Amino acid sequence: MDSSIEGATEAPSGDTVPEGGAFTQVTVVSATAGGSDIPAVAVAAAPASLSPSRAGDFMQCPLLYRFRVIDRLPEKPSEAATRGTLVHAVLERLFDAPAAERTAPRAKSLIPGQWERLRETRPEVAELFADDPEGERLAGWLGEAERLVERWFSLEDPTRLEPAEREMFVEAELESGLRLRGIIDRVDVAPTGEVRIVDYKTGKAPRPEYAEGALFQMKFYALVVWRLKRVIPRRLQLVYLGSGDVLTYDPVLADLERVERKLLALWEAIRQATETGDWRPRPTKLCGWCDHQAHCPEFGGTPPPYPLPVRAAGSGAV
């Protein structure tokens, strides 16, 4: 296999994958029944693409998916997510250096410059420390980023790694027409052609009973790679910098086929919700961290007016 993966391109700016045009088109359907015309009905188009994050949003809470993808409600940056973005950037840039120079001190020295770059590309992150005039909280936050970067060196040896791809944007279209897209942190390709997909996590490893949920994102990426190159990745590897754990899984074809079926079912569920406007909240413990409680019925809020025409029940539109 080549060192690059066909269909991969440079990742879009920022750390999220755009959901391409899923809700910008509307189909107008009209029909004739019993000799009389049925008024045209506007039906929102099915979603065009899914990323692991947006698929995860819908599985966690359909209303959260709506708030993020359809309403595009703003969300405040969080210290944890922003630190994750910073650490990812540092680990990506470290591989620009020759192998012998990929040391922990060098990696930590990249943090100030990458933080400045992040503030330039995403000015909203500066709000995180607006109430920290002395810089004490910022110093502690940057110190935690240093500890996460340093811990990585106890889990992997970058002097012995030559990634085929870093921060790689991939997209594949299934036979159904659904496009799967995402950004893979790192792809390693062995001389024998075997592929390893690696993802960095700055949090702690999940308990064993939640490991399957954590692997969903990795199996999603494996499915995309398989669809692009007809090669099943040899290994999926999650590197948890928060706890110093490495979770690995060796997928087989049946895994990828199951993930594809699951994604097609999600796609159909999202299409139905789009057409009917029925986006139901799914309360969990994660609700306490949601930015959208003011708009959520579970907290006494009211969602914004639905921005799309919806299909009337029994209209027969498809």
TrEMBL record:
PD-(D/E)XK endonuclease-like domain residues: 49-297
Gene3D superfamilies, sorted: 3.90.320.10
The keyword Kinase is assigned to this record: no
Xref: InterPro entries: PDDEXK-like_dom_sf (IPR011604), PDDEXK_AddAB-type (IPR038726), Restrct_endonuc-II-like (IPR011335)
Keywords per UniProt: ATP-binding, DNA damage, DNA repair, Helicase, Hydrolase, Nucleotide-binding
Region of interest: Disordered: 1-20
Example GO molecular function: helicase activity
Gene Ontology BP annotations: DNA repair
Domain of life of the organism encoding this protein: Bacteria
Keyword flag Translocase: no
Protein name per UniProt: Recombinase RecB
Source species of the chain: Streptomyces brasiliensis
Lineage: Bacteria, Bacillati, Actinomycetota, Actinomycetes, Kitasatosporales
